[in-house]
Amino acid sequence: MDYLHQISHKRIAPPAITARTTISELVQEIFLSYNAGRLREACQLFVEKMLAPDTIVGLSLSGALTPAGLGISCLVPLIEAGFVDWIVSTGANIYHDTHFALGMELHQSRPGLDDYQLRQHHVIRIYDIVFDYNNLVETDRFYRTLCSSEPFQRTFSSAEFHHEVGRYLNELELRNGRRGSSFVAAAYRAGVPIFTSSPGDSSIGMNLAALQLTGSRLFLDPLRDVNQTAAIVWQAKRHGHSAVFILGGGSPKNFLLQTEPHIQEVLGLEESGHDYFLQITDARPDTGGLSGATPSEAMTWGKVDPQQLPNSVICYLDSTVALPILTAYALANHPPRPHRRIMDHLAAWTAQLREACQRQACLVEGK
Question: Exposed end of the chain (fewer CB within 10 Å): N or C?
Fold first, then answer.
């Protein structure tokens, strides 16, 4: 029994759920085992460690989250509370987020509809979400018109580009009384950088490519993204801790995590990996896909600090289930944090990383 108590977190003796049971009580007292237990650990890791004042939180987004309304219900509140400091997202999540800022409608339906009939009636389907094809046409027109304007005729990192887009989406929100409809606009207001790891892999990228054919000078520089994201993590680790919060996996996950190998392996700067690792995924690790790769595997690449593996949680659950619960739990159990406004510091932080890299190169050459 002594050993049993040593390995026990608590006795399994939950209270009965009542009509007055809160999200916090549900997580702390009812989510005891299996993936409910991992979700409890995820919520506690996020609130008790990742939201510490000296920790910079990076969030990666994959999967069609914004069409399901999770941008409005979860991402905007997390950003406004200062719980997310920088983001790596698929372009699709940003593109579909724009529908809401433009006042377009998306609707609940059901899976298993006749897709041939949907095509005949110009209806787009994302599993059990449906919307009019005209949403795509008008959103495409919005991006082509906006990005043809003079402020966009230059080279951007994807974060700089999305910040400029967010400026216009914020104006649209305020003008039309829709504040809170777009996480890109919320990120603009809070100075939260949003990077896209594959800027050509979305409808936004396709529209920018079309503009390039007609002489546009707008150019997204993915190499600038690599250095800017590394600069954020370099600053986080110099002055505190770095936390990664991964929804799904794929390219955004790797782009968030590769910041540490870039600092250590490529730039040759002394570092040890991210401090806190939290992932919500339904992918298995044994298939060899990146989305299922574990934090201990990431540790072998230098992505996660080996000393911090106990501060790593993987919850094998659908993000659309876990994210609202974690958001509600965090808002109920942690006060808002001041916005770090990393966008305001991005150029200076990147210059500091460049200087550190140049000093290290001189040391190596002098040996």
Answer: C
